[in-house]
Amino acid sequence: xxxxxxxxxxxxxxxxxxxxxxxxxxxxxxxxxxxxxxxxxxxxxxxxxxxxxxxxxxxxxxxxxxxxxxxxxxxxxxxxxxxxxxxxxxxxxxxxxxxxxxxxxxxxxxxxxxxxxxxxxxxxx
Length: 125
Known about the structure:
- The chain has 4 helices and 5 strands.
- The chain has 125 residues and is an alpha/beta fold.
- The longest helix has 16 residues, at 24-39.
């Protein structure tokens, strides 16, 4: 599993790309990367999940916690999801209404520059 981070401009959004299975060590790596970004002042984060599999509840928790933290400062999180099963899981959990969703990392970045963030989802954001 690899986690890579791209920053767009000094105070612009960040794109976090995941590559490979999202197992426990990879989820910890993802959490560390996202925590570092948010602690560093990044408010808009796109997470490219198109090359990651599978996504378990711990990873979803890390993503939701990141969303919760950036919303406090008016930020947002967008997810790039190309797997139909993952899209269905997010929909069942109500997270398709909580996160901004795209099919590519670049499209997820574009979503961060448009429209207000969705209202908090059923998990209580």
